[in-house]
Amino acid sequence: PPTTPGGTPVTPPAPALPERGVTMEMYNNIPGMTLNRLLYNKKFRSKTPDSTRKIPGLVSPLNIANNYGLRLTTYYVAPETGKYTFYVSGDDQCRLSISSDDDPKNLRPIVQFKSGLATRPNEWNKDPSQKSAPMTLSRGQVYYVEALMKEGPGGDHISVGVKLPSGVLQRPIANNDVYIKPPGPIGVTPSTPEKGVTMEVYKNILGNTLSSLTTNPKYPSKPDVTTKIKKLKAPQNAGDLYGVRLTAYYVAPKTGTYVFYVSGDDQCKLSLSTDNKPEHLRTIVIFPKNFWTNRNQWNKHPKQKSRPIRLVKGKAYYLEAVMKEGKGGDHLSVGVRLPGRLRPKPISKEDVYVRPPAPGTAVVGGTTIPENGVTFEKWRNIPSKALSRLITDPRFPGKPDVSKKIRRLSIRPNQGNSYGVRLTTYYVAPNTGTYRFYVAGDNQCQLSLSSDEKPENLKILVMFPVNRWSSPNNFKQ
User: Fold this and answer.
1) Is the bond preceding residue 443 a cis peptide, omega within 30 degrees?
2) What InterPro entries does the record point to (predicted)?
């Protein structure tokens, strides 16, 4: 290692962290409200903006000037794998483009305002031309993004939002996921989990029952206000004739039996998913009609609390709380009685997230969220029943024809002929003691187990003779 002249070892500097943010370029003195006036301007085509600066996210300052064009560029790191829908709010005409990777040369438009369209700030659903078609992105992959806006006279702004595969609406996109420079291929390294709660408000809705909110055309996809708050507690006495929805991912701080409570005015409902997916929500608390409580009053009525529910430490659960206010006082908060405790208390802000922590990400108190499952790899067109034909194939092990996640150490029978399969996983022993492993399969099979979590320490435990096989799940044939 390098040393000082006196012989003291020199510690090399830590690598610089990627810089989060968005580059904003401004092109002044361009009349007109259409993007073509910007795109064909000499300054824009020669990439010589009048000013360039960094902003924190994909949201421009409001009402900067008149007769100018704006270009926002950034590198977006997808926090999840699946279908994304992007949204643009802006005034005047706007366009959003995204690359298939981190190369700007691969940009393609996905949103373009129709001529004459302008929206208010954070107005996401005024016109269908504001949103993209669903598109698949991969968690941890870097994508280059460009947003353009051309301003004539009057108000001016642009912001970009997204609906994640998990169903979470980030409007605008979370600042944690955008970078000034490409952070480089980061594989499946997740971005930092974002603590907090998403609050959506639906204004000017008559009635004090939940049905008056849930049957309104605005609910749930067109809230009047979307914002982030710190806790599962809505502001008190915010108005009359409105509804509110709070959504978050709750990370259980302990394994055990939980009881959830709701305090609210007027009618309220609490739903909890069996995992981190909104589609698995089920109602666990619902107030009777015309029932309400004081702030943080947890035991006024038996319908305020859920039945006991078992949760697992470190696992993320999607949670939704809804309240419909008529007139008078209004509030909503969610509490919990933790395992081993006698009384409920408001859910801690340390345990709720706007975006679900990715599997393997450290969360509260060092708790991690392991990703259950098995990696399935398949190599096609390999004749013979002998394992040696798979192991000596030049594609094995690094170039499978199929690679995906499955739930168990078991594959669907009779998938075809002349192929090989490898299943890999990390097995967490549930007890201390002596174990015996069995294999059922057709044709020749082999099972290996490591002495720890390192693949290089694998040793063979089970090996079928050539031409031996068993029927499905027959472990003693």
Assistant:
1) yes
2) Fibrocystin, PA14/GLEYA, PA14_dom
1 CB-near residues (< 8 Å, 6+ apart): 9, 10
For 185, other C-beta atoms within 10 Å of its C-beta total 11
Q: Give 197's strand partners.
A: 229
Range 194-355: architecture per CATH: Sandwich (2.60)
Determine how β-strand 256-265 pairs with β-strand 331-337.
antiparallel
Q: Which residues contact 306 (CB under 8 A, 6 or more apart)?
A: 259, 260, 261, 270, 272, 284, 285
Q: Cα separation of 429 and 346, whole Å?
A: 35
CATH topology agreement for domains 22-179 and 194-355: yes
| Helix (H) or strand (E) segment spanning residue 22 | strand 22-27
Determine the Cα–Cα distance for residues 45 and 48; give it in Å rounded to an integer: 8
Tally of residues, the chain: 477
The residue behind tokens 């590198």 is: 75
Q: Where are the domains of the chain?
A: 22-179, 194-355, 374-464
- Cross-strand pairs, 160: 88
Reduced 3-state DSSP string for 356-400: CCCCCCECHHHCECCCCCEEEEEEECCCCCCHHHHHCCCCCCCCC
Structure tokens at 270: 């609490």
Beta bridge partners of 333: 233, 263
Q: How does DSSP classify residue 55?
A: E
Which fold, 22-179? Jelly Rolls (2.60.120)
Residue 442 Cα distances to 368, 461, 464, angstroms: 37, 17, 10
- CA nearest 371: which of 80, 170, 78, 85? 80
pLDDT mean by block of 10 residues, the chain; 477 residues = 45 55 96 94 93 94 95 92 93 95 90 93 93 90 94 95 89 88 53 80 95 92 88 95 96 94 97 88 95 95 95 90 96 96 94 75 49 86 91 88 89 92 88 90 94 83 91 89
